[in-house]
Description:
Layout: E1 5-12, E2 15-27, E3 33-37, E4 43-44, H1 51-60, H2 67-73, H3 81-93, H4 111-119, H5 132-145, H6 158-171, E5 178-180, E6 186-188, E7 190-191, H7 192-204, H8 208-219, H9 221-224, H10 230-237, E8 242-246, E9 250-254, E10 260-265, H11 270-283, H12 294-299, E11 304-307, E12 310-317
Antiparallel strand pairs: 1-2, 1-12, 2-3, 2-10, 4-7, 5-6, 8-9, 9-10, 11-12
Amino acid sequence: MAAPVPVVEIVRSGLVEGRHHGSVVALDATGETALALGDATGPIYPRSASKPLQALAMVESGLDLPPHQLALACASHSGEPMHLEVVTEILDAAGLTVEALQCPPDWPYGAAARDDVLRAGGERTRLQMNCSGKHAAMLATCVANGWSTDDYLSPTHPLQQAIVTTFERMTGEPVARHAVDGCGAPLLATSLVGLARAFSELALASHGPMSRVADAIRTHPELVSGSDRDERALLTAIPGAIGKLGAEAVYALALRDGRSVALKIDDGGDRARSVLMPAVLDRLGWLEGPDLDRSAALATGTHLLHGGGEVVGELRALV
């Protein structure tokens, strides 16, 4: 198995004081490899980058949500009021309450939303947990099929079995390993190539469940992430693109014509994830087009270092 390679360097006052290692793969519109760095074929846990594939399995199993709710099914949301309202909508429509959620209680993922809760004297809740939209959609899928809701996270549950089938079809690979994600849901391993392939398929779809999931992400990137998140800004700068981050610094993105990128920062450094993706797209010449805002896309990869209240350095992509 190939080893991760240096992909982002930390430069302070002109000195490289450290490097983030990682792996990247990019597929062109025909599915051929356009770029591969590090380990593109070994197994990784996509973490929340799997959510669009999980949502696809739910739609294929009969889940029928309007686009804004389907976007929340794909989300690692910031816990802003708009996110919590839509999660509640999904549960209400299924005749369920927040008590049915089996994700762990948590603070909002977004810093501003978390500060608002703390100032108000709030506490951790399941609704605020960034995966609550996915869990609400899982419960709604169970209700639509007459499946039990008390064990919907069990790997042997019909819902989770359907997700495995869809995941393997979309990645083109058998599940490399089964685990448990941070939210308690089953977690499936694939390679970066498999993840890039799956996002390419989603982006290319012109009808049916795949198109519904992709269009929900395109139409509501603020619901898939948050108002001030770098993922939202990147998708806004690249019309037609779909993308999703995952914990431990996983990131997958596909353009409307099927070109796709999947990457992982080996140490889980999320700051390096946001720096690397636009740099890869730019190296490949994929930040060009009449409706594409290259400057705005590149700005999502800006990470400045400060000293004494002044800018003294930056994180710099090595691609």
